[in-house]
Design goal:
Layout: H1 4-17, H2 22-34, H3 39-46, H4 50-62, E1 66-68, E2 78-80, H5 83-114, E3 123-128, H6 130-143, E4 148-152, H7 154-161, H8 163-175, E5 180-184, H9 188-195, E6 202-206, E7 216-220, E8 223-228, E9 233-238, H10 240-256
Parallel strand pairs: 4-5, 5-6
Antiparallel strand pairs: 1-2, 3-9, 4-7, 7-8, 8-9
Length: 259
């Protein structure tokens, strides 16, 4: 069973998420426990001057979480709205944030297209472990609307993430209407991808190099990720010159590779 202190702390956390200050949250919780109270009583419980209490009350009223009683013949008392109102406002805020998140994700490719690195420092990030690998793998789909280019071993890549995850990524990529060109070293999984090209918005070609390798790189937006599935780790680089060089290498090998 949840203790009284845990319930109180959870309420404080919700109030803070709504933007209340420590003092405003303390006033709300104190008033909730006291019930309808006069300003004098609240000032005593909060150990602060009455003018300061009025300021805190104004903050709660602004957020629709408090009001004075409407009785005129006696000293008016202050009351707060029930915790159900806090929950409702919290849900409304989260819905707004979720809508903003969705809108920002949808516009991300356009914002990245306007981003010019120029003389700013190169950004390099290293993602280690399967969890971080998968996070950046799906993040690629949030940051691009143009074609994605991948060069490397599909077999080593899919062996690390699983076919289930690969199919989930393909499904999301298709929903976003993103085509991918893959230049792969020969392998069983590579052949499977090739057979499904027509219905999975993908063009597959094979690289006939002398030495097989497990690594690969992916070009998208203004970035490149170098994948190393054996560790596993991924190196994300935001550098227009490195991206331009690797894109030129990919385009040259793509043109020379058999369909």
């Amino acid at each position: 069973m949840v203790s009284h202190n845990e319930v109180k702390q959870n309420l404080y956390t919700c109030l803070k998420e709504l933007g209340l200050t420590e003092s405003e949250a303390n006033l709300y919780v104190t008033s909730l426990m006291l019930g309808p109270s006069t300003i004098v009583s609240l000032a005593e419980h909060l150990n602060m001057p009455r003018p300061n209490v009025y300021k805190l009350i104004a903050g709660l009223e602004k957020r629709g979480l408090a009001k004075f009683s409407e009785r005129k013949r006696h000293t008016r008392t202050f009351i707060v709205e029930p915790p159900t109102e806090v929950l409702e406002k919290l849900r409304e805020k989260r819905e707004v944030v979720a809508n903003l998140d969705q809108a920002l994700v949808g516009a991300m490719p356009d914002w990245l297209a306007l981003y010019h690195q120029g003389e700013t420092p190169t950004k390099i990030r290293v993602f280690q472990g399967k969890e971080q690998w998968l996070k950046i793998f799906f993040q690629v789909l949030d940051e691009t609307k143009d074609d994605i280019s991948f060069f490397g071993s599909a077999d080593a890549f899919i062996n690390m993430i699983s076919w289930e995850t690969e199919k989930e990524w393909i499904k999301e990529r298709m929903q976003k209407n993103i085509h991918i060109n893959v230049l792969l070293t020969p392998g069983k999984d590579a052949e499977t991808l090739l057979m499904n090209d027509p219905r999975e918005m993908r063009t597959t070609r094979f690289f006939r190099g002398k030495l097989p390798f497990a690594t690969g790189f992916m070009l998208y937006a203004n970035k490149v990720i170098i994948w190393q599935p054996k560790a596993p780790l991924a190196v994300l680089m935001e550098d227009e010159y490195i991206v331009e060089m690797l894109r030129s290498i990919f385009d040259e090998l793509w043109a020379k590779s058999e369909k």
